[in-house]
User: Which sequence fits this backbone?
């Protein structure tokens, strides 16, 4: 589908909550260094799909999966996959900014410390680089010891993104990252996702179809656990191939 | 981090570039059509006619980009007016190219003999029209309303030139019917140039609307 190489490949991926099948035979290639949006009405399985990509659903009782999800060709559901390793490679940013009740510095340094980096200079370099990447460094460089909770909500979300990239992941998953933010902060985060996609592969789940249209290179439309249509965002929003996509993007079904 | 909407701003700049490139193509078609006329050069006339497909493609490519920007970037206010103006401007520029083709076709229809009088006012009119086109598109990109007002005022000069040429050519035809076969064609050429100026006037009026939200009547 894309000229960019595949970062993630889903092969006939199915997910069941008990008897209820939520994801049905999902097969797709997620292009590296791009923003891919997953859209669809509530309950279509988009968040479940996103969470399947870093195995967050493992924690839920009664979840069963079949099929595979490959990260750089390696099936992440193989028994030998180390979840700490997996989540260091696939970072996640949530709906509401979840800044730890720690200093700005310690928020960003948390994950590298868990991974065993203790050298102060090394940590300081990681923190600086991560905050620079999200455009927060110039604002906070003189108050790194201040509590992260003192930041405005939009800046807290940037901090969470900085924290997610501090482990130098390959993939960043965004689950409704702007739903708690005002319009200006929303546009800032959207721009940031586009900018970060030069270094990372980004997948975003959003209820906000307009956000998917603005911020993503590719869009996947899910309905009732199936991929209805998946392609370049511009195509999907100007000339969808499936009547169900047309009805969804034009607001006729929701 | 830059101010919000970096991607969108970049796309709008690309749209400006596309309009400018299309304008250059149309301008060179107009220029070549007039050289072909002055030199009665059939090869150049043919080349000009063939070039029209390129400008048509550019117009659709601009239109497609505008539709994509509206569908994906949800422009509002001035941004929205600007994108709609780009669609209309591309259509006006495409008409400039069409009239250039019409002039090139006249070169093919002209009798194979020297002009009954040297071409002076028609090339002068073409240069003025080409300048209007350049400045109109520059004004769109740079949002320079003073330049746009100048473009809008130039249309009156073109109209006056056309009236003058019209009377002069009709006069020639009355006095010497052997000039009719050429003079009629030259009358068409001057009419096409006058129509081109009208399309550029449309461009100027659109730029004014984009920048002020007001319709200007000169």
Assistant:
């Amino acid at each position: 589908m894309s000229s960019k190489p595949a970062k993630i490949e889903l092969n006939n991926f199915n997910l069941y909550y008990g008897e209820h099948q939520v994801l049905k035979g999902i097969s797709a290639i997620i292009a590296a260094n791009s923003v891919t949006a997953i859209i669809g009405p509530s309950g279509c399985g988009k968040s479940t799909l996103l969470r399947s990509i870093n195995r967050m659903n493992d924690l839920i009782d009664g979840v069963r999966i079949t099929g595979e999800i490959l990260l750089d060709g390696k099936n992440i559901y193989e028994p030998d996959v180390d979840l700490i390793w997996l989540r260091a490679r696939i970072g996640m940013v949530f709906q509401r900014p979840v800044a730890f009740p720690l200093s700005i510095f310690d928020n960003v340094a948390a994950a590298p410390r868990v991974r065993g980096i203790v050298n102060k200079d090394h940590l300081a370099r990681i923190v600086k680089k991560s905050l620079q990447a999200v455009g927060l460094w110039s604002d906070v460089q003189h108050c790194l010891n201040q509590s992260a909770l003192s930041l405005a909500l939009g800046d807290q979300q940037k901090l969470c993104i900085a924290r997610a990239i501090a482990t130098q992941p390959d993939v960043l998953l965004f689950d409704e990252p702007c739903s708690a933010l005002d319009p200006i902060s929303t546009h800032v985060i959207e721009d940031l996702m586009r900018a970060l996609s030069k270094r990372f592969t980004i997948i975003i789940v959003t209820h906000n179809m307009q956000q998917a249209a603005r911020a993503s290179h590719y869009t996947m439309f899910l309905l009732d656990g199936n991929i209805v249509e998946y392609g370049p965002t511009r195509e999907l929003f100007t000339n969808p191939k499936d009547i169900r996509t047309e009805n969804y993007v034009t607001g006729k079904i929701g | 981090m830059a101010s919000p909407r970096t991607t969108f701003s970049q796309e709008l700049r690309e749209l400006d570039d596309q309009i400018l490139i299309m304008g250059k193509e149309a301008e060179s078609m107009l220029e070549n059509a007039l050289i072909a006329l002055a030199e009665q050069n059939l090869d150049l006339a043919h080349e000009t006619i063939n070039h029209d497909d390129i400008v048509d493609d550019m117009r659709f490519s601009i239109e497609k980009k505008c539709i994509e920007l509206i569908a994906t970037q949800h422009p509002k206010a001035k941004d929205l007016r600007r994108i709609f103006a780009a669609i209309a401007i591309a259509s006006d520029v495409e008409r400039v190219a069409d009239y250039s083709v019409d002039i090139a076709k006249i070169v093919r229809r002209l009798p194979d003999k020297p002009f009954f009088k040297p071409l002076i006012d028609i090339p002068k009119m073409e240069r003025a029209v080409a300048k209007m086109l350049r400045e109109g598109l520059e004004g769109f990109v740079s949002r320079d309303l003073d330049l746009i007002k100048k473009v809008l005022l130039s249309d009156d000069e073109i109209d006056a030139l056309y009236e003058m040429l019209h009377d002069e050519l009709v006069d020639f035809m009355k006095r010497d019917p052997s000039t009719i076969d050429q003079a009629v064609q030259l009358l068409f050429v001057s009419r096409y140039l006058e129509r081109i100026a009208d399309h550029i006037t449309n461009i100027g009026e659109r730029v004014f609307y984009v920048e002020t939200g007001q319709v200007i009547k000169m």
